[in-house]
């Protein structure tokens, strides 16, 4: 996250999904694991049942952030992989695909080898399968963590206020046809990151360096309109003239 | 501020009110989805607007409605936000949200409909009982609706959405009116209290 963006100095880049991904997850990276990233992940909901993510994150110690990794089978580039180290349990691996409101970035596989056509170029489905099959280009230590991960899921992050079912159902249907259950697909919105920052700032006494990061994150998401329902604002005091501009009596 | 600037401000304020209403509906949608309820119909929330230059007073949507069902296509819960009166004889002093349980008594499935918008306001609407004077029942020929009316600005955060809308509606759906009334009595209004007529 840059202060320039917060002050509107890079308007041409502000709508970029990559910048938003970088803003939010780099802020998380600089914060204690249980202050921001884990509270954020806990707000994710299941793409089929809309139920909150089950109690996976009890004893998380650290999160490795791997930005824009490559997958090795479908040659995809997810926005992020999180590899979470836990105290007593195996690691957790999460692929994050981030958007604003746009749909998936599907590709036309009609000219591709037959094996690559199975998921019809569906971005989410292909990344999902690559995650399940360990098909991700990582360093040796990260690869080891991924292989040991017995909980792994794809987290679709968007700016929608509610679960964009048309997109996720379509991907799940394609996965189901290929004998994947699709039950490791979750969704969350950016507004949840605003809530995480807000809640942490409101409820905890934090060292300056953490408070500044959370305040900047909150202000940036506010600037981008990515906030959740905060009640109704008090409208501005208006003149309420008898007529605004058309003064002729009927 | 010039008149022109004032007009722009009024417009911006209205967009903000709609934006916040959209977020409120999204929270309601998410809460019901988590509990296994499904929204009926498409994403549309309003009707009875006009695109014609002849009816500028109908350019702005004045109500927003969502209906949710769970295991019965004839019976469900609904919310209806009202920003303006329903007609000359039914005016409101401030925006309200109606929380309703609706059940069709004919062969059709429950959907978004005018009777939900009008629930509590009809001439034949009546208190559910002497014990629950702020819960209204409206019996149409093909649909029966029980509802309550809550000033919209009481919904000040997500916790209030759960406390004043989602939980009471689920309890009301299950016929637990005493529990509903305990939860809501201090917050909801009699029709006379919010009407300007």
Report on the structure:
The complex is a heterodimer of chains A (250) and B (197). By secondary structure, chain A is an alpha/beta fold. Chain A has helices spanning 3-6, 17-29, 37-42, 123-132, 140-148, 165-177, 191-203, 208-223; strands spanning 45-46, 60-67, 80-86, 92-98, 151-158, 185-189. In chain A, strands 1-6-5-4-3-2 form a six-stranded mixed sheet, with helices on both faces. In chain A, helix 6 links the parallel strand 5 (151-158) and strand 6. Chain A is globular. Chain B has 197 residues and is α+β, with helices and mostly antiparallel strands. Helix content of chain B is 33%, strand content 24%. The model of chain B has no long low-confidence stretch (mean pLDDT 93). Chain A binds chain B through residues 45, 49-52, 161-163, 227-233, 235-236, 238-239, 241, 244-245, and chain B through 1, 3-4, 6-7, 9-10, 13, 16-17, 20, 22-24, 26-27, 29-30, 33-34, 36, 152-153, 155-158, 160-161.
Shape of chain A: globular
Structural class of chain B: alpha+beta
Strand order of the largest sheet of chain A: 1-6-5-4-3-2
Count of DSSP H/I helices of chain A: 8
Overall pLDDT confidence of chain A: 91
Q: What share of the residues of chain A does DSSP label as strand, in percent?
A: 5-15%
Number of strands of chain B: 7
**Order of strands side by side in the largest beta sheet of chain B?**
1-2-3-4-7-6-5
- Binned, the helix content of chain B reads 25-40%
Q: Taking all residues together, what is the mean pLDDT of chain B?
A: 93
Helix-strand topology string of chain B: HEEEEHEEEHHH
Structural class assignment of chain A: alpha/beta
Measured between the Cα atoms of the first and last residue of chain A, the distance is: 56 Å
- Assembly annotation: heterodimer
- The end-to-end span of chain B amounts to 34 Å
């Amino acid at each position: 996250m840059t202060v320039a963006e917060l002050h509107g100095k890079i308007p041409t880049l502000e709508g970029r999904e990559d910048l938003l991904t970088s803003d939010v997850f780099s802020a998380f990276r600089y914060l204690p694991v249980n202050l921001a990233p884990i509270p954020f992940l806990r707000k994710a909901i299941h793409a089929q049942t809309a139920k909150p993510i089950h109690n996976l994150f009890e004893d998380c110690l650290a999160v490795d952030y791997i930005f824009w990794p490559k997958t090795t089978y479908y040659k995809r580039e997810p926005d992020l992989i999180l590899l979470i180290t836990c105290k007593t349990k195996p690691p957790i691996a999460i692929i994050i695909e981030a958007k604003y409101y746009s749909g998936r970035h599907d590709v036309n596989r009609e000219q591709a080898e037959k094996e690559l056509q199975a998921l019809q170029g569906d971005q989410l489905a292909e990344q999902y399968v690559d995650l399940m099959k360990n098909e991700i280009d990582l360093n040796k230590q990260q690869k080891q963590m991924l292989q040991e991960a017995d909980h792994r899921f794809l987290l679709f992050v968007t700016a929608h206020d509610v679960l964009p079912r048309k997109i996720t159902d379509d991907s799940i249907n394609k996965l189901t046809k290929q004998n994947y259950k699709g039950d490791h697909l979750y969704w969350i919105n950016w507004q949840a990151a605003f809530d995480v920052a807000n809640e942490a700032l409101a409820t905890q006494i934090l060292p300056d360096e953490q408070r500044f990061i959370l305040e900047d994150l909150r202000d940036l998401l506010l600037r981008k309109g990515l906030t959740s329902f905060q009640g109704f604002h008090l409208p501005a005091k208006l003149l309420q003239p008898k007529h605004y501009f058309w003064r002729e009596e009927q | 501020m010039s008149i022109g600037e004032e007009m722009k401000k009024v417009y911006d304020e209205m967009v903000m009110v709609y934006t916040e209403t959209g977020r409120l509906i999204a929270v309601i949608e998410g809460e019901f989805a988590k509990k296994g309820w499904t929204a009926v119909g498409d994403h549309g929330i309003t009707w009875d607007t006009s695109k014609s230059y002849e009816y500028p007073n109908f350019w702005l949507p004045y109500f927003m409605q969502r209906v949710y069902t769970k295991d019965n296509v004839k019976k469900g819960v609904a919310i209806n936000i009202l920003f303006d009166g329903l007609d000359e004889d039914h005016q409101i002093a401030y925006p309200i949200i109606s929380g309703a349980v609706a059940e069709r008594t004919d062969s059709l499935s429950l959907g978004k409909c005018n009777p939900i918008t009008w629930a509590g306001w009809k001439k034949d609407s009546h208190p559910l009982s002497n014990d629950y004077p702020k819960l209204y029942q409206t019996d149409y020929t093909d649909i029966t609706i029980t509802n309550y009316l809550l000033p919209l600005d009481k919904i000040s955060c997500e916790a209030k959405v759960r406390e004043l809308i989602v939980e009471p509606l689920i309890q009301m759906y299950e016929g637990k009116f005493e529990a509903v009334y305990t939860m809501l009595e201090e917050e909801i209004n009699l029709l006379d209290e919010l009407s300007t007529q």
